Amino acid sequence: MYPSFMDEDVVDGMDTFDSSFFSKVDAHDELCSMPDDVFESPPLSATYFRGLPQPEDGKSPEAEQPFQRAGPSRGLPVVAAAGPKRGKRIASRVKHFAFDRKKRYYGLGVVGKWLNRTYRRSISSMVRSQLELTDSHRPYFTYWITFVHIIITLLIICTYGIAPIGFAQHLTTALVLRNKGVYESVKYMQQENFWIGPSSIDLIHLGAKYSPCMRKDQQIEKLIQKERDQERESGCCVQNDNSGCVQTLQVDCSETLATFVKWPDNSPAFDLNNSSRKRISGAVCAQDPRTCEEPASNLPHIWPDDITKWPICTDQAKSNHTGLLHIDCDIKGRPCCLGTKGSCQITTREYCEFMHGYFHEEATLCSQVHCMDEVCGLLPFRNPESPDQIYRLWLSLFLHAGVIHCLVSVIFQMTVLRDLEKLAGWHRISIIYILSGITGNLASAIFLPYRAEVGPAGSQFGLLACLFVELFQSWQVLEKPMKAFLNLSGIVLFLFLCGLLPWIDNIAHIFGFLSGLLLSFAFLPYITFGTMDKYRKRVMIIVSMLVFVGLFASLVIWLYVYPINWHWIEHLTCLPFTDRFCEKYDLNQVLH
């Protein structure tokens, strides 16, 4: 057990922490100019007492400092204010807020202020000197990440609009032209967004954390293989009244109103690899190896006797009367990618647009399009059959599900993140913020693969872990540290319980917190309470980094090398209080 965590007594000898420690004001401090006040970090004594008049009620300015004195109060010299108060020198409150360099005390901060933390009455001279030398940094990273979040959220809403607002599913019904040439009543169900933002499909297209876009998914692979097996058995259904044709299965083609063209029964093409053998895979509406000129089916590039491997014909022979029913007809349906799992249907453009799908005018078969590439968006896959958008792990940290979601992030970052960055600096806090968010998204991609998640939830819980580490590192200088620990634990426990509600990614919260805890031990500044404590904390830095690397490597292996599927872990992010409490928030669209 590290003494800086739990020991009640400090290691070094105790000195009385009286006001003389703060009253060392020299002439240089008295003559500091306004730019020095704004852009320099004055010593602790000058920060609190330079230029402050003595109150009429006799209350010492020392009452405002975070340290408690053991001895009797000592009077301070009254320094007359030569000009207006420093807080009024900058006209704009926004500018004053942005350039605030008020001393950030180790172990206290904005959360410590909310929870009424104070230092002990007596602190050793060694620790006291470390607290005095603690620097306060400008929160550049906080301002940058907050600005980026706001701008991206506004651009997304202006571009993609707002989905139906609420917690249930939104149902839309309309009469839509279908493959048979008649209008049918069609239903489209869409998950509502209570964050006031775009739909889930749009968020996936923008870069949300979504496993099927980052790796090959077994469930989606089975779905695609099933569709291709059915496509091999399909043929061209030609209407007898010459109203059109569509690629479909024989059971879906009317025996009285249409003619089902299927090889080798209806004018099949010959296999050029074996001139005596007729093709058995086909026919395909509006496509035939005998009439396609680009790419032509000639030696050595002969189309295989498997329509699921046929290319897209970009140049068809210019003839309206080929004598082939499946070529001379007017095609009514083409491939349409629907839903979030890359499902494909041969359907009309009207139906595809109503179902918010991606219509492919250039193709005739579903095997000729790559629906997951369409669903995921962003940069195309290097191999259309293998999703590889690993960059979603960090890209989703800059996205939000809506206005309310972004507002929560802005408030959190301008309070907690800003306060921690003043303590640690932009380089340390940015490492903790980004790596915690990536680790949380990585775990969420493993255990919640079909849920699209956006936002820096893992990063924010990593920052909450920083508060615990700071508390542990300053345990010996705080008054009632156990009370401070229980107060902070209660707040974090409440936030974890909120993660049990639908559409809140508690997996990212948990692993973001764990990674933030490890990274905070490695990167946050600390104070020491003796030689042994110094070496212990250095060992803790090495151990924390090794454990974090092991955790991160394990998650990468579980995502790409040995995928795991633990269904029970889903209860950590959504408890099924009712039968449909969690089920209705599945992102897979219900199509009718």
From TrEMBL:
Keywords: Endoplasmic reticulum, Membrane, Transmembrane, Transmembrane helix. GO terms for cellular component: endoplasmic reticulum membrane. Residues 388-524 form the Peptidase S54 rhomboid domain. The keyword Endoplasmic reticulum applies. Residues 50-75 are annotated as: Disordered. It is found in: Endoplasmic reticulum membrane. The chain crosses the membrane at residues 140-163, 393-417, 429-448, 454-472, 484-504, 510-527, 539-561. InterPro entries: Inactive_Rhomboid (IPR051512), iRhom1_2_N (IPR022241), Peptidase_S54_rhomboid_dom (IPR022764), Rhomboid-like_sf (IPR035952). Gene3D superfamilies: Rhomboid-like. Residues 1-43 form the Inactive rhomboid protein 1/2 N-terminal domain. SUPFAM superfamilies: Rhomboid-like (SSF144091). GO terms for biological process: negative regulation of protein secretion; regulation of epidermal growth factor receptor signaling pathway. Belongs to the peptidase S54 family. Regulates ADAM17 protease, a sheddase of the epidermal growth factor (EGF) receptor ligands and TNF, thereby plays a role in sleep, cell survival, proliferation, migration and inflammation. Does not exhibit any protease activity on its own. This is Inactive rhomboid protein. It comes from Podarcis lilfordi. The lineage of its organism: Eukaryota, Metazoa, Chordata, Craniata, Vertebrata.
